[in-house]
Amino acid sequence: MRKEKPEGTEPGQHPHAGHRQRLKNRFLREGCSFDHFEPHEVLELLLYFSIPRRDTNPIAHGLMERFHGFAQVCDASFEELCRTEGIGETSALLIKMIPAIGRFYSVDKYSAGYVIDSTQKAGEFIYPKFFGLTEETVYLACLDGANRVICCEKLFSGSVNRVPILVRKIVETALRVGAVSVLLAHNHPGGTAIPSSEDLVTTRKVISALRTVDISLLDHIIVAEDDYVSMAESGMLQ
């Protein structure tokens, strides 16, 4: 890891202090929302906290020009960010924390005890867990008799086409926590949320295995980018 150059060490008041305060005040005035901010303005404001004494506007524009979008900036690797003009290790780390914090917040918001009694609530619960993930990942939520979440565990990440292992892991996890029903979900990184033929085959095997231990599959949700499909709502669990 290359040694970071100090980010903003000039003494005294920098000439952009007034602009910084105005941008901060604007964020607060708009209800702590970025709805009316341009992408480079969000980056500019964020970089205030890692670059205290430099104009971050050209740095933010440079990031947008290099990576072609706010999300692409956040998804860039730590090393790529460090190679960008004006970005040191502290700023790169701060940028990489954005999607991680967003996902952590969303997952924590829907924690154990959350009641899943509709497809909408199932989506609200499970969708945030895939925020920012670039590898295929499988999650299993275990529910009690009142449809309250007992636990939600990540079963696999990366290559998940190991159906026998997956089915056994689902059954073992559900039995371990005394689940009455389970919610299964996985993502299609870079693809669509439409269930594949493999997804249908796997789902049928999961239903069959769970039935032998008197546990039901509440739903199997497929997540892709900003969309998800409920196999239960689509009639695919019959």
Number of helices: 9
Strand order of the largest sheet: 2-1-3-4-5
Work out the helicity level.
Answer: 40-55%
Question: What's the N-to-C terminus distance?
Answer: 53 Å
Structural class label? alpha+beta
The helix/strand series, from N terminus to C terminus, equals: HHHHHHHEEHEHEE
What is the mean predicted local confidence, pLDDT? 87
Rg calc: 22 Å
Categorize the overall geometry: elongated
Strand content is 15-25%
The profile of the biggest β sheet is:
5 strands, mixed
Low-confidence stretches are 1-12
* Number of separate strands: 5
Notes on the structure:
The chain is built from nine helices and five strands, in the order H-H-H-H-H-H-H-E-E-H-E-H-E-E. The radius of gyration is 22 Å and the shape is elongated. The protein has helices spanning 17-29, 39-47, 57-67, 70-75, 78-82, 89-109, 119-126, 163-176, 197-211, and strands at residues 137-143, 149-157, 181-187, 216-224, 227-230. Helix 2 (39-47) packs across helix 3 and helix 8 packs parallel to helix 9 (197-211). Helix 9 (197-211) links the parallel strand 3 (181-187) and strand 4. The chain has a five-stranded mixed β-sheet, sandwiched between helices. 43% of the residues lie in helices and 15% in strands. The chain starts with 16 loop residues before the first helix and ends in an 8-residue tail after the last strand. It is α+β, with helices and mostly antiparallel strands.
